[in-house]
Specification:
Strand order of the largest sheet: 3-2-1-4-5-7-6
Strand content: 15-25%
Structural class: alpha/beta
Radius of gyration: 18 Å
Largest sheet: 7 strands, mixed
Helix content: 40-55%
Low-confidence stretches: 165-173
Shape: globular
CATH topology: Rossmann fold
Number of strands: 7
């Protein structure tokens, strides 16, 4: 089962007007547990962030994290990079239409090659590293691109079933991933070898998060893949299910998990 065709279809639906695009961002922020965890980390960083911070969104996707940051740091300059040319062009049009094109810019870049020495106060990588085989090269490039004291925040699957793989020989539910997830020690060692001096890693998607992810993401994606008729009942499905997912998400963010299918990482230069 692949996410990309369904994600593209949903993106096309919500991309018809700026209002729908912003609504799409809001829905992603509410539904995706990783957004809850990432926002927690970003809010902590924002407490001491310079008003005119320079930010790298490394693997920007639809641009929802750049949008979230731009609303909270209106003087910040954000460079959001991705390998998908059509997606980059689409995001540039959207932010330009909002009058934000001068301070939020999207560009086609390969993270295994992109390096802009000592340019950024913050780098953000959300659900990106599991797609890149040459991860250490990316970590080295981001480290070089951060200013002294700059921070890298990563959200990525763990090796505890992060790609919905639980047994040896089982295939990933998310077929676009090049690895089934990181071991905590593995990602710590790779980041330190890239030059980061302070690395803190914790589990996300613990027991409450696993249930929420299945209810809010896995089961709807499977049903959408099976029949397009489910698009018609999707709003009703979420109307019933979301209150339970919101409680589970809040629990997952507030708890310390001994294990989990995701990792949230802070690495400081």
């Amino acid at each position: 089962m692949q996410y990309d065709p369904i994600k593209r279809g949903l993106g096309n639906v919500f991309n018809r007007t700026p209002f729908l695009r912003k609504l799409f961002y809001r829905l992603l922020d509410l539904l995706l547990l990783r957004a809850w965890h990432v926002h927690r980390e970003l809010k902590q960083w924002l407490r001491n962030a310079p008003p005119n911070a320079s930010i790298l969104d490394a693997g920007a996707g639809y641009g929802q994290h750049s949008f979230w940051l731009s609303r909270r740091l209106p003087q910040a300059h954000i460079l959001a990079v991705d390998v998908k040319e059509e997606q980059v062009a689409d995001c540039n049009r959207f932010f330009s239409d909002l009058g934000m094109g001068e301070r939020v810019r999207f560009a086609v870049e390969d993270l295994t090659k992109y390096r802009n020495p000592a340019q950024f106060d913050l780098a953000l990588s959300v659900d990106v590293m599991e797609h890149i085989l040459e991860d250490v090269e990316v970590f080295k490039n981001i480290h070089a691109s951060l200013k002294p004291g700059g921070l890298l925040i990563i959200s990525t699957p763990s090796d505890q079933g992060g790609s919905d793989v639980h047994d040896e020989g089982e295939g990933s539910f998310i077929e676009e991933h090049v690895r089934d997830g990181y071991n905590i020690r593995e990602i710590e060692d790779k980041l330190r070898s890239a030059g980061f001096s302070e690395v803190h890693v914790r589990y996300q998607y613990g027991a409450p998060g696993k249930i929420s992810w299945r209810l809010s993401m896995k089961y709807p994606i499977l049903m959408l893949g099976a029949t397009k008729l489910f698009y018609l009942i999707l709003p009703l499905y979420y109307l019933i299910v979301y209150p339970f997912c919101a409680v589970l998400n809040a629990l997952d963010v507030s708890m310390t998990h001994p294990t989990g299918t995701g990792l949230i990482v802070n690495a400081r230069k």
